[in-house]
Design a protein that fits this description.
7 helices, Protocatechuate 3,4-Dioxygenase, subunit A, 284 residues, alpha/beta, six-stranded mixed β-sheet, 14 strands, binds 3-methylcatechol, binds fe (iii) ion
C-alpha cells in the first residue's frame, strides 16, 4: 500500500521539483531590477489590489482565505505553476511583440536544460511500449531572410499519454520524451515521438483548490514544448497544439495562438501521424 502511495504523482512533489528547478536555473533571489522600476510596478500592483477590495467590498473572511491560500501555494511549491499558468502568457506577449519570425508562447514550469543530444533524425527517449499514437514531427529551421540554419538546436519536451512530464512525476525514466535534436547541414530535423494527450494541471494542490473554488477547469490542450536556437539568432520558446483537440479553444494557460496549431496526417503505412512545421528565427 505505502509503495503505491509514494509512487503517486502529487502536486506537492511536482511543485517542489519545479520550484527547485527554477531556483537553480534562473534565480537565486538577488534583485537586479532598477529601484524606480520596482517602485512603479509594486505600487501599481498593490493599488490594483486595493481597487479590487474596495470595488467588491472584500470581507475579513475572504482576506483570511486569501492569506491562507497564498501561504499554501508556497508550501506546495506551486508558485512556478501558478505564475506560468495565469501570468506568463502576457509577459511573453509583451516580450515578443516586435518579433518577425515564428511565434512563440510560454515556457511553463517543466523545461529541463541539457537533455540528451540527438542527431537530425532521431527518436526521443521513451519506454518500451510507450502509450499513444506515434508522431513524426519534422521541419526546417531558417533565418528571417530564408537562409537555412545548419546545426540549429531543436530542444523538445512533452508529457506522456497520461499527462506526466519526466523529472516532475515519479516512475518515469529521467529523460523520457525529452531531447536536444541538432538539425542537419540544411537546417532540417525529423523527430519521432508519440502524440501527447491533453494535460490537466495538478488538482490536489493550491492551484487545483483555486480552480475548484472558482468553478474553472484545469485543462491545457495537448502540446509539444520547444526551444529552437542557432548562433546569431534569437532563441524562440514555443508550444505546438493539435487541430480539433480538446481545450485548444479554452486553454487554462491562455497560451494557444492560431499559428501554433498543427494538423498532422496519417502516414502511408498506418503506423501513426506526421506533420511538418518550419521555424523562422529573428536575428539577434
Ligand atoms: C504545463 O505542462 C504547462 O505547459 C504549463 C504552461 C503549465 C502547467 C503545465
Ligand atoms: Fe506543458
Amino acid at each position: 500500500m505505502t509503495d503505491i502511495i509514494t509512487e503517486q504523482a502529487t502536486a506537492a512533489a511536482s511543485g517542489a521539483a519545479a520550484t527547485e528547478r527554477f531556483r537553480t536555473r534562473r534565480h537565486s533571489g538577488a534583485a537586479d531590477v532598477d529601484t524606480r522600476r520596482v517602485d512603479t510596478l509594486a505600487t501599481e500592483l498593490i493599488t490594483a489590489v486595493h481597487d479590487v477590495v474596495r470595488r467588491h467590498k472584500v470581507t475579513y473572511a475572504e482576506y483570511d482565505a486569501l492569506k491562507a491560500w497564498l501561504i499554501q501555494v508556497g508550501q506546495d511549491g506551486e508558485w512556478p505553476l501558478f505564475l506560468d499558468v495565469w501570468v506568463e502568457h502576457v509577459v511573453e506577449e509583451v516580450a515578443s511583440e516586435n518579433r518577425e519570425g515564428s511565434k512563440g508562447t510560454i515556457e511553463g514550469p517543466y523545461y529541463v536544460p541539457d537533455a540528451p543530444r540527438l542527431p537530425a533524425e532521431a527518436t526521443l527517449p521513451m519506454r518500451d511500449g510507450e502509450e499513444g499514437t506515434s508522431l513524426l514531427f519534422q521541419g526546417r529551421v531558417t533565418s528571417v531572410d530564408g537562409t537555412p540554419l545548419p546545426g540549429a538546436a531543436v530542444e523538445i519536451w512533452h508529457a506522456d499519454n497520461d499527462g506526466y512530464y519526466s523529472q516532475f512525476a515519479p516512475g518515469l525514466p529521467e529523460w523520457n520524451l525529452r531531447g536536444h535534436v541538432v538539425a542537419d547541414d540544411q537546417g532540417n530535423f525529423k523527430i519521432h515521438t508519440m502524440e501527447p494527450a491533453p494535460y490537466q494541471i495538478p488538482t490536489d494542490g493550491s492551484c487545483g483548490r483555486l480552480i475548484a473554488a472558482a468553478g474553472w477547469h484545469a485543462w491545457r490542450p495537448a502540446h509539444l514544448h520547444l526551444k529552437v536556437s542557432a548562433p546569431g539568432h534569437q532563441l524562440i520558446t514555443t508550444q505546438l497544439y493539435f487541430q480539433g483537440g480538446s481545450h485548444v479553444e479554452d486553454d487554462i494557460a491562455q497560451a494557444v495562438k492560431p499559428e501554433l496549431i498543427l494538423a498532422p496526417t496519417p502516414v502511408g503505412d498506418g503506423s501513426g501521424n506526421e506533420v511538418t512545421y518550419d521555424f523562422v528565427l529573428d536575428k539577434a
